[in-house]
Amino acid sequence: MAGALDGVRVIDFGQYIAGPLTGMFLADQGADVVKVEPPGGPRWVTPANATWNRGKRSIVLDLKRAADLTTARRLVAGADVVIENFRPGVMSRLGIDPGQLVRDHSQLIYCALPGFASDDPRAGLPAWEGVVAAATDTYRAGPSEPRFTAIPIASTFAALNAGISIGAALFSRERDGRGQHIEVPLFDAMFSAIGANGLAVVGADTSGGRPNDFGGGVFQCSDGRWALISLAKPHFLQRFAIAAGLAGQIDVERLATDRDTRDALSALLPEVMRTRSADQWERLGAEADLPLIRVRSTAEWITEDHAVASSTVVPLVDPRLGPTWQPSSPIRLSRSDASVRQPSRALDADHDAILRESQAAQAAPAVPSIAARTAALEGVRVIDLS
Length: 386
Description:
By secondary structure, the chain is α/β, with parallel strands linked by helices. The chain is built from 14 helices and eleven strands. The protein has helices spanning 18-28, 49-52, 66-77, 90-93, 98-104, 129-135, 153-176, 186-194, 234-243, 259-273, 278-288, 298-303, 305-309, 351-360; strands at 9-12, 32-37, 56-60, 81-84, 109-112, 180-183, 216-220, 226-230, 292-294, 313-318, 322-327.
């Protein structure tokens, strides 16, 4: 079965997370992704590179050397998509100007994932994941108690948004023959993760919190393990109170409408959750149709039946790390093969083959401007049942 992006050539200049992860999404769908690394290899040496660079071919180029810069330009000339996640202006200083590329190669799709947009006053700031998180209120746990999270939320959502944007641009190019210059700033992408929590209704009284803000959280159980329960809906509150045997202490009928009753239940939660083991709570949650589950470690999750049986994780032998478990493709298409095709390659393993291809590549002929560009997906009809 062919991949959805078979025949699409991608040049990936990305470093750290957002750029390489975008390239991984495309490689999983069958794109031929050429990973361009600087001398010495990835700027961030981490085992995660085995996942982010899987399915890609590898070449090392020093863009400060004239011969390597020429090779890079040839690679771009024969590509469908270019990915990079440097600060605005960095690629131009290295000799690969995005605007000029798109003008010279009218079918090229150029995707940049900077920390801050090129028109943002902070565009020149070294926008590491933590900087973007701090700028988007991600480290907030209370009015005066910021809390750090190591989860790369901004980079991950930027990669997802970039993959969607590249897919839309490829679709649009099939229609009008023209490429696009895409910019997906990590700062902007963070609001995809924030979602409804970032909604501010002008002039509305929000002092009472959001209508569905009923609580829940992570609680320690009788066996010392932890369980998570979400009480985001009124019927979850009522089901939990009944299943946990609290009907005699809490007026179940008032839980849906009375904040004081909800607060009383919230106050009881830490004590109540310590009356059963985490496994017992998980079984009770399943019986009562509640979002209640035992908190698992990474090792537990990977080795339990569901992750393997559902192919959520797949075994892969990496040339440097040996046997690994890696996340499979998060996108499953019924008539196209989305899969982990091969492990990451040794650094510069494909240099000679890629060099020969670049010398033989022919740039796509320029497409004359036709009608004014429409939105990338204009004309597509969608039925939203979500």
